[in-house]
Amino acid sequence: MKISLANEILSEERFIHSIKTALACLIGFILARFIHFPTEQWIIITTLVVMCAQTNVGGLMQKSYMRLLGTLAGSLIATSTLMVFHPNPAIHIIVIMLSAILFSFIATSEKSYSDAGTLGVVTVVVILINQNPTVISGFARCTEISLGILIAAGVSQLIFPIHARNHLRANQAITLYHLRNFYVAIFNEGGPQKKAGDLFDLDEKIAKSLIAQRKLAGEAKREIFRKSFNIEDFKRSLWSEKELLRSIIFMFHAYEASEESKKAINSIPSLLDFHQSISRALENIAENIEQKTSETILLPDIELLNVAVQEKILAASVNSKIQLSTFLFCANNLVTHLKNIAALPHTVNPA
Question: Residue 87 — φ and ψ, nearest 5°?
């Protein structure tokens, strides 16, 4: 299955990023020795903190901006304390406690600026808890930490950059593969009665993939030397992926609602062909996205199913009419959003 291929690619990128992390540390060490910083270890420590937090360029650049901002804020607090109160352990402890409250509140936020919190309070502590804290040593610590952040950002951006847009493409393909497997498991392999655990796992994987896509899209927008990234196309794709999942789930609930509706749906001659065409379309779209190809996608023909289900509705009881109508509505919605995804630029126009 192509999911394993995508995972292999991500593992390869992790290895590349590990090499880049070691290279960034080497650059920091050489630079520290060349300039003769008094506490050069903070350059390497900061570089490691930033590099190990994220692999792709967009995410790392965002974290770098915020951590640099946090470092500057922490340095301002610490140096202001030294300028006003001079070395005073009691005042230093109070400032550190207040800084811990402020920056931990920021760090635990779900906003993008949360990354400013950790290095903000670390900078305050590093400057004030020192054998002989001075304003000059405070500026030196700020410079060391800032330099570590800049080295990490530069190496991430310029040396074998790992782009968020590529992760996003892989994630979209994986989501569609999971949707295909989910559909097949429900309608071709006996449904939840036999595979409840597997269906739950697939549903969780799909949900996590959809959440990850939104995060990756935000990171792709922030990449400096990026190819054009159309956020509106992404939003349409994400919405259609969500609609695919909803349609599949409600189709199944309508199918399982009563024995009468189940029997009526199972008696439709074109049903098996419809299920198979949905499965093929999901897999083909995923392959086009993953492999960046333009193979023709044969989308399901919904008309035969429409005619067949309408005939069943005419002869059904009141409750079954509702269930059959729901099944048909969801099937049409499923095909509509398959067409929407197929028509987006990351794949090809529907056949």
Answer: -60, 110
What number of CA atoms fall less than 13 Å from residue 21's CA on the CB side? 18
Band the pLDDT of 60: cuts 50, 70, 90. confident
Residue 37: what are its φ and ψ, rounded to 5°?
-70, 145
pLDDT single digits (tens) 78-103: 999 988 888 888 999 999 999 999 99
DSSP three-state, residue 110: coil
Judge whether 22 and 47 are in contact, CB under 8 Å.
Answer: no
Q: Measured between alpha carbons, how far is 113 from 247 in angstroms, rounded to an integer?
A: 36
Confidence at residue 183, expressed as pLDDT on a 0 to 100 scale: 92
- What whole-number distance in Å separates Cα of residue 5 and Cα of residue 131? 53
Q: Does pTM surpass 0.85? A: no
Whole-angstrom CA distances from 21 to 36, 124, 155, 287 are 22, 26, 8, 32
pLDDT beyond 60 at 2: no
Name residue 303's amino acid: E
What does the block give as tokens for 113? 């600026």
Mean pLDDT of 200-226: 81
Chain centre to alpha carbon of residue 20: 22
Helix (H, G, I), strand (E, B) or coil at 230: coil
CA 207 – CA 168 distance, rounded (Å): 15
